[in-house]
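User: Structure please.
Assistant: Input sequence and predicted structure:
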Amino acid sequence: MKKFNIIFLLIAALSLQAQSQTDSPTFLGQTVFKVGYYGSLLFDNGLNVGAEHVWKQKQKIKEKKKGQKTITHQLLFNGSIGYSTNFTNQTDNGLQTHYGLIWRRTGSKRWQFNLELNPLGYYRAFLPETYEVNGDEVSEVKFPGRSYYAPSVSFGIGKSGKGKRHAGWYLNLNYTSRMPYNAGALPVFTIQYGHRFNLKNNK
């Protein structure tokens, strides 16, 4: 009888351990990916892709007349890369990447407010066919363009999904400062609109 009791306890312990591992959040479960439009509508237009990973999360539950109201605050690591081009004259093509943090507030009706700060930013401008003159010689410049340090800040709204692979949509106004530009910095305002999704089907 004792032998069967020991076997039963071992099976129960393994079952609880497996359940604990299943319930604990995984890296992929805490990460969402995003893809969307990036540009200024009138001039530069392009595509932006990235990922967000939950660093810290806090929920507040308030009792209301219509029931409980849950408000979620999150801090997320953010990384993105995108490419934009000027379809009018093809003189302003650029690759940009940003890394930083996002603060997000999600209300009980799934509406969200986002504040994004990216101190690590890089922008590479690509110029069309370019030549240089050295004395009597004219030669083509390989990979013409220029690199900039480009930190950015964004704020906007969105709405989260209902626990499915579609994690929600977002609409942000973005400000980027490209430095050094001539003797100072070049301010750039862009719009970001896109959707977030999970690779893992969270419940």
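The two ends are 41 Å apart (CA to CA).
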